[in-house]
Amino acid sequence: MINFSYLVFIIKSAFFDFSRNKVRTILTSLGILIGVFSVVLLMALGLGLKKYIEQQFQSLGQNLLMVLPGQGFSQNGGQGLIGGIQFDEKDVLKIKRLKNVQAIAPFFTKTLKIEYKNKSQITTLLATTGDAFKVIKVEAARGSLFTNADNEKSAKAVILGAEIANKLFGSGEKAVGEAVRIQKERFIVKGVLKKTGGGALGSETDMRAIIPFRSSYFLNPDKKFFAIYTEAKDAKSVLTLKDDIKKTLLKRYNEDDFTVSESSELLNTINSIFSVLNLVLVAIAAISLVVGGIGIMNIMYVSVTERIKEIGIRRAIGARKFDILYQFLSESVILSLFGGFLGLFFAGLIVLAVQRLFPAYLDFGSVFLALGVSSAIGIVFGVFPAKKAADLSPIDAIRYE
Amino acid sequence: MLILENVWKEYVLDQETKFAALKNIDLTIKDGEFSSIIGPSGSGKSTLMHIIGLLDKPTKGKISFSGKDISRLDDNQTSTLRNEFVGFVFQQFNLINKLSILENIVLPAIYARKQLNFDPRQKAIRLMQQFGIAGKENSYPNKISGGQQQRVAIARALIMEPQLILADEPTGNLDTKSGEGIINLLSELNSKEKITVVVVTHDRHIAAKTKRVIKIIDGEIHK
Ligand SMILES: Nc1ncnc2c1ncn2[C@@H]1O[C@H](COP(=O)(O)OP(=O)(O)O)[C@@H](O)[C@H]1O
Ligand SMILES: [Mg+2]
């Protein structure tokens, strides 16, 4: 029914009308442009956020189990971390003796000042074991990392993040072997970490100072830990170890006092929180698409009124209602798709621009959705004006002046 | 070819008043005729022509085309008949200004539903040569003279090889000389290509050039 030359003709005449009303066409498409732009951009950022979180988790060991106080991350987001219990060395030792434990790292943290000569920096100090470096996968750029043995000896050694080393010493190279003061106590810089920009310890990794926990008791007189990270021997033993840890801790604590979660569990929780958040944002942005659609509808009504005579001529030479409907519907779809393409294009530009800072990306789904939704808007909001044009009586249309 | 029996066209002006633009029209137009409908302004000539050309529907009465009753066809069927059997020529030319001359002429072919046994573009170019407007293919209607525009309109009316040409005051917007050219052209189409032609006019000189003159006054045919 619809042959190729018919299609070409319809599209050509649509473009002719657009080029005659350039300003109007651009203003009309602008609504759709903004709508598609914001929806696509938010989707790209959402996808990027998801990817970013996954990247961060990849730096955590695959077979990692996190023992956290309260409800952990698993239910109310991070809320459960507040309150709850703190763990002690006895818990650490008991877990260490369980089967299938490959590595264990208790964590104590405190925000304090670290000084070198007359310079000082605020850092969130981390006290843990040598195993921690395996669990959280960080490596030394200069010097070396402290070991479990250093911890047993209560060695006064400190590992600095790349950035804090730079700030205190000017470069990582100069830091190794130097003495810094942590609340009057002298610590020797044993190593400087590679720059991470993120990783398992969050964005502050590069500003961290890490010391053996046995050397941290002057800061932590109660000898308490806020979390214990454990790596299972292999993927198969993760769940067994999880059960064993639970059983062990239940002897001392109530079920609600602590949580043992796998890293994948945590990843899923965080992902689902951000997915919901992103969906809400995208839904809000989609409102502008509806506004854009109404703009198209408005202009299409104007266009029908302006072209009553033309419709009459076309009807006189044999165009059916369908032909007229099709002509106006094509115009609204082209108008909307034009806005959609531009919106996609600009969103793409922004995505490219931020990609160096943040792994935002467009997938096939968002491109498809953007173009699909703009065509759909063109059809939905174009069908009423097009129907009006098609339903004009041929005689009234051709007599119209 | 075309028979109108007891055809009425009434317009409802308000709740009480009706106005009959056509009253009890009985008219037969035979195959190959060259006739004119003449009458003063407002007498119902255009209304009659629109009804003959299936652009408008009568309030009452029967119209048959080649023996078939066509007064109760639906919109798709009348559109198809307009496309295939009728060619309109209007006083104001009624070309689409944003389309090129060539595109205007082939436009009816775009809406054709049947398989065409000719190439519309080639045919359009041939008609343009025949009508002395060759070379204007890519020009636009508002760039050529009125006489040329009316020739384009006639070419458009002919592109689908219709059996009937209906021309509503085709010379009304033209000077005498170009008007004469248009009437001669229509006359030639009738004599050489055996196309049935009906010309609406209020000009007796033009009516005199046709083989049959139908007089209409106040919506009624005068014998
Ligand atoms: N849509 C309409 N509503 C009311 N009256 C109309 C309408 N169309 C035409 N008429 C009237 O019908 C009469 C015939 O009109 P028309 O056929 O155009 O006359 P002509 O072509 O002979 O000048 C006129 O009086 C005109 O005012
Ligand atoms: Mg008239």
Descriptors:
A: 401 residues, alpha+beta, 2 domains, 6-stranded mixed β-barrel, two-stranded antiparallel ribbon, 13 helices, 18% strand, elongated, B: 223 residues, alpha/beta, Rossmann fold, 6-stranded mixed sheet, 4-stranded antiparallel sheet, binds magnesium ion
Could you characterize what this model shows?
The complex is a heterodimer of chains A (401) and B (223). Chain A has helices at residues 4-20, 22-58, 89-96, 132-135, 148-152, 162-169, 172-175, 238-250, 263-306, 308-316, 321-354, 364-391, 394-399; strands spanning 64-69, 87-88, 101-116, 119-128, 140-143, 157-160, 179-182, 185-193, 209-212, 224-225, 227-232, 258-262. In chain A, α2 runs antiparallel to α12, α9 packs across α11 (321-354) and α11 packs antiparallel against α12. Chain A is α+β, with helices and mostly antiparallel strands. In chain A, a hairpin with a 2-residue loop joins β3 (101-116) and β4. In chain A, 42% of the residues are buried. By secondary structure, chain B is an alpha/beta fold. Chain B has a single domain (2-222), classed as Rossmann fold (3-Layer(aba) Sandwich). Helices cover 34% and strands 27% of the residues of chain B. Chain B contains 7 helices and 10 strands. In chain B, the strands form 2 sheets. Chain B has a 6-stranded mixed sheet, with helices on both faces. Chain B has a 4-stranded antiparallel sheet with strand order 2-1-4-5, with helices on one face. The two termini of chain B are 20 Å apart. The mean pLDDT of chain B is 94. Bound molecules: adenosine-5'-diphosphate and magnesium ion (MG). Adenosine-5'-diphosphate is lined by residues 11, 19, 21, 39, 41-47 of chain B.
Topology:
The complex is a heterodimer of chains A (401) and B (223).
Chain A: H1 4-20, H2 22-58, E1 64-69, E2 87-88, H3 89-96, E3 101-116, E4 119-128, H4 132-135, E5 140-143, H5 148-152, E6 157-160, H6 162-169, H7 172-175, E7 179-182, E8 185-193, E9 209-212, E10 224-225, E11 227-232, H8 238-250, E12 258-262, H9 263-306, H10 308-316, H11 321-354, H12 364-391, H13 394-399
Helix pairs in contact in A: 1-11, 2-9, 2-11, 2-12, 9-11, 9-12, 11-12
Chain B: E1 2-12, E2 18-29, E3 34-38, H1 45-52, E4 60-65, E5 68-69, H2 75-85, E6 86-89, H3 101-110, H4 120-130, H5 146-158, E7 164-168, H6 176-193, E8 196-201, H7 204-207, E9 212-217, E10 220-222
Parallel strand pairs in B: 3-8, 3-9, 6-7, 7-8
Antiparallel strand pairs in B: 1-2, 1-4, 4-5, 9-10
Helix pairs in contact in B: 3-4, 3-5, 5-6
